[in-house]
Structure formats: structure tokens, C-alpha cells
Amino acid sequence: MGRDRGGVGLCRQQPARWNLRLQFEQQLAGIWRSLLGLERVGRDDRFFELGGDSLTAMRTVTRIEALTGVRLTLRQLVSGSLGTLAEHVVESCRPRAAWDS
């Protein structure tokens, strides 16, 4: 289950909710590009459909936690698109962010 573990990074920032999601989508796409060796990754892409495997999924989850402090399960990583995952992380950051700004 995704939980904020007090990490530095995006969960500690205070931007508007949509801005936080956009920032995270961009950073998540960068993580996927780097680990999967791809030039382009979009909001509707899915991890395994892009060629991800279980070992790379574990590395990805570790990088996301380091970036945000949010702990994800492998199921959360692979069950939706990049955009869905970004929204989940933003929702997990909710207690730390000022959503009404």
C-alpha cells in the first residue's frame, strides 16, 4: 500500500495539486526511460507493455520511493498507466501538500 515515508522531494513541496502531478509524471517518465532504455514515455503508457520486467519494476519502485517518500507495491506500479501511478503518488502525498493553492 502506498504510504508517505517522509522522503524528500515532491511530497515535501507545496505546489498546486495539478502541478505536482505534472511534475511527478515528468520525473516518473524519466525514471522509466532510464531504466527501460527508451527515448519516449507517455502518460498513457504501461510499465510491462514498454518492456519492463520484475527486476526493473523493483528498481523503479525503489527510485520512486527515494524521490517521493511514497512506498508503492509492484502491483501498483504495473496495474495502471504512468498517469494513474502519478495520481496515486500525488494522493499519497495529500497530507503534506496544499491542495487548495
UniProtKB/TrEMBL annotation:
MF term (GO), any: phosphopantetheine binding
Key words, A-Z: Phosphopantetheine, Phosphoprotein
GO biological process per UniProt: amino acid activation for nonribosomal peptide biosynthetic process; secondary metabolite biosynthetic process
InterPro entries xref list: ACP-like_sf, PKS_PP-bd, PP-bd_ACP, Ppantetheine_attach_site
Cellular component per GO, a single term: cytoplasm
One Pfam family it belongs to: PP-binding
Classification via SUPFAM superfamilies: ACP-like (SSF47336)
Domain Carrier: 19-96
PANTHER family for the chain: FATTY ACID SYNTHASE, NONRIBOSOMAL PEPTIDE SYNTHETASE
Name the record gives this protein: Carrier domain-containing protein
